[in-house]
Each structure stands twice: as C-alpha cells, then as structure tokens.
Design a protein that fits this description.
The chain has 8 helices and 4 strands; from the N terminus they run H-H-E-H-E-H-H-H-H-E-E-H. It is of the alpha+beta class. A 4-stranded mixed sheet has the order 2-1-3-4.
C-alpha cells in the first residue's frame, strides 16, 4: 500500500472531531457554548455592526428568537479592519443601559439598515445624533465617560478570541449538551427544529388531579 492510499485510509478511521481539527475548522475553546440555565436551546451569536453579513443575518436571527421563544446570547465582536463598529457597539451598550434593551435593539437594527451610508466615525456620530433626535432624546456629549461600555465590548471581543473566531457573524445553536455552528443562516429554522426535537424541555408539566 503506497503512502497516499495509507493516509487516506487512516483519515477515514478518524473521529469527526479530529478530522475537523485537521481541516482547521475546529474552535479553540467552546466550553462557554452552552444554553443558559433553565433553557434547553438558545442562539449564541457574535456580531459586528459594520459587517454586511451581520446585517443580513440580524432579521433572520431575531425572527427565529421570536418564533421559537428562545434566548439570544449576543456578543459584540468588532473586527479590527472596521473603522466604526466598536464605537457603534459602545453606543448600543449605552442605549441598553440608560434607555432600554428594546431601544438598543432598535438602534442596532437601524445601524444595520444604514450601513452603506456610514463610512466613518463622523458619519456614525451624525447618524446617532439624528437617531436620538428622532426618538426625542438628546445624545450625550460623551457616551462612555468611565469606559464601562468599552470594557463590556472588549470583554465580548476577548471571549470571541478565546473561542477562536475568524469571521462575523459567527452563530451557534447551543443546548445543555453542546453546540452546532450555523454556517448558512438560511438553514437556521431547520437547524433549530432539529435541536429542539433532540433536546426536549425537561420542565415537568403540572399534574392534573381527577375530581372524585
């Protein structure tokens, strides 16, 4: 048996996880990719507000969360190549803390919808000022004076590095047992159906008592 045939035969006997590692598709640390306590299935996502693919995925992911009534564990992962995405994430964190989580979601949705018209930090600042004005609010002169929200974004980014991210969006369906990566967001619903079927809720239904 020549070396090429022998190598091919050995590959066929390797577990899928080892094959994935050999092909460079395995992540570094996935210990945190689990559904939160009390949930059987959730979506775990890393996004970049300047990423066009994230903009396309946003409505699909959020529609799925609403349909299946499952948690969304979203993390900011502003790519180094992007000029204003980190600032946008910091602003979204400010809105979430100072106004409401729903307002922050609306801001993120608006940013994604206006990506093509935001080319710089100045553009982002102008967009955000108009956004605040349209919601009858004044944009603060300094959004993050203490650096708290920047630290939160950096913590998310560090978590992404720990996982070993190479792109955004990176989306996982997570359960109490593990995770599966969603590489094609158009398959999200089908993959959620499978995950939910494979991980039925363990919450006990209340027993009914027959009246005599």
């Amino acid at each position: 048996m020549n070396r090429i045939v022998l190598a091919a035969a050995l590959l066929l006997t390797l577990p899928a996880s080892i094959l994935a590692l050999a092909q460079g598709t395995a992540f570094k640390d996935t210990s945190m990719l689990r559904a939160p306590a009390g949930s059987t299935v959730a979506i775990f996502e890393f996004e970049d507000l300047e990423c066009p693919a994230c903009a396309r995925a946003f409505p699909i992911v959020h529609a799925a969360v609403d349909k299946y009534k499952i948690p969304l564990l979203r993390h900011d992962f502003p790519l180094q190549m992007h000029v204003w995405s980190r600032d946008a994430a910091i602003i979204a964190r400010y809105i979430q803390d100072k106004i409401s989580p729903q307002a922050a979601e609306e801001y993120r949705r608006a940013v994604f919808a206006s990506q093509q018209s935001i080319a710089s930090k100045d553009d982002l600042n102008s967009f955000t000022q108009k956004y605040f004005q349209s919601h009858n609010r004044a944009m603060p002169f300094v959004v993050d004076p203490t650096g708290r929200f920047a630290a939160e974004v950096q913590a998310d980014y560090t978590l992404g590095e720990r996982v070993g991210l190479t792109q955004t969006p990176t989306i996982f369906i997570v359960t109490q047992k593990g995770y599966v990566q969603v590489t094609d967001v158009t398959q999200l619903y089908q993959m959620l159906d499978t995950a939910i079927a494979d991980n039925p809720s363990t919450v006990a239904k209340p027993k009914t008592t027959a009246h005599k």
